[in-house]
Amino acid sequence: MQNDAKREWVRGWHLVLLTAIGLIFAPTTVAPYTIGLFVGPLHASFGWSNGEIQGAILFSTGLGLAGGPIAGWLVRRIGLRLAILSGVAGIALALGSAAMVTGALWQFYLAYALVALLGAGTSAVTWSYLIADRFSASRGLALGIALSGTGLSAIFTPQLAAFGLDVGGWRMAYLTLAAVPLLIVLPACILLLPRNHGGDQAEVLPREGVKVSQALRSRHFWLMGGSTAAIYLAVGGLIPNLVPALTAKGVDRADAVAIMGILGTAIVVGRIIVGAAIDRIWAPAVATAVLIPAAGACLLLSTNASLGAYAGAVALLGVATGMEFDMLGFLVARYFGLADYARIYGRLYTFVAGAAGGAPLAFGALYDHLHNYEAAFFISALLLVGGAAGLLALGRYPAAFAARD
Length: 405
Known about the structure:
0% strand, 79% helix
C-alpha cells in the first residue's frame, strides 16, 4: 500500500498542484468568496439591496444545476483536457463581463450565469475526476490537497477584489479577478494537463463501477445528495454573508477580510487533514467529527463575541467547508467506482449547486427582512447536524470498491 501510494505521487504530484491552482477560480469559489466585497460599492452605484446583489450567486453557483451535468458531458465528448481549458477561458470572460454592467440588474445576473455556464469545465467535477482517476491508495489525501484550491480561493480572491476596489473601484476589481485565470491558470493548464487523458494505462487506474442510471436508483446517491445539499445550504449561505455579517457586528472591514483569510486557511488545512483521515477511517465518521463543531461555531457567530472568538468560529466553519468537495469525490469513488465517475459526480453536483446557489439569496433576503444574521446562523447549525446524520446513514462501503476502484 505504501509503495503504491508513493508511485501514485511520483506520477501525479504535478496534477495535484495544478488542480489546487485551477480551483481558485472555479464557479463555486470565486463568486461566493468575493461578492460580499461588492455589496457596498454596487449599492452605492445602482441602489441594489443586499438580497438583490447576493441573488447573483443563485446564477453563478445555482446554475451548477446545469453546470455539473455539462461538465460530465464535456469530459465524455471532448475529453478532460479540452473541458478544463474551455472552462478556465470561459470563467475569465464571464468575470470580465461583470465589469461591463451598466445598471440593469439582469446584466449583473447574466454575468454571474456565464460564470457557471462558461466555466463549467473548470468545476470540481472535472478536477476531482483528474485526481480520482490517478490515485487509489492515497486518494483521500490527494483529493484533500488538490481540492484545497477552494480554500486558497477564500484567501486570495477577496484580496484580489479588495486590491481592484482600492485601485479603480468595482469595475477594476472584476477585471482583476478575470485577468489572473486568463494570464496564469490557463497557461499552466496548457503546459501540465495530460494530452491524452485515459490513454496512458501506466498512470490511469482500472475503471470499474456502476453506470449513472444505476447510481440514480440507489439510496446512496440520494443520501449523498441530500446530505451535501444540507451542508452547502449552511456554508453556501454563510460564506458570502460573512463580511457583511461581521461588519454589522462592528468588526472593521479590514479585520473581516482578514477573517476570510482565516476561513481560507482552515479550508486548506481541513481538506488535507480530512483527506488523510478518510484514507484510513470510515469517511462519514470523519465528516461527523468535523460538522458537529462547525454547527457549534454557527451558534457562536450569532452572538456578540470577541474578534478572536469570531476568528476561531470561522476556522471551524472553514474546516467543514473544506471537507465537502473532497469528501463527495471520495464517496462517489468508494460507493460507485470510476466507470461513470464524471457523470455521477456531475449529477450530485446539482445538489451542491442548487443549495450553494440558493442559500446566499435566501440568507440575504432573510437579512433584508430581519436586519440581522442571527436566524441564518441558527438555521445553518441545524443543517450541518442534519448533513452529518445523512452521511452516517450511508453505511459501509460496497465490497467491490472498498479496497480497489
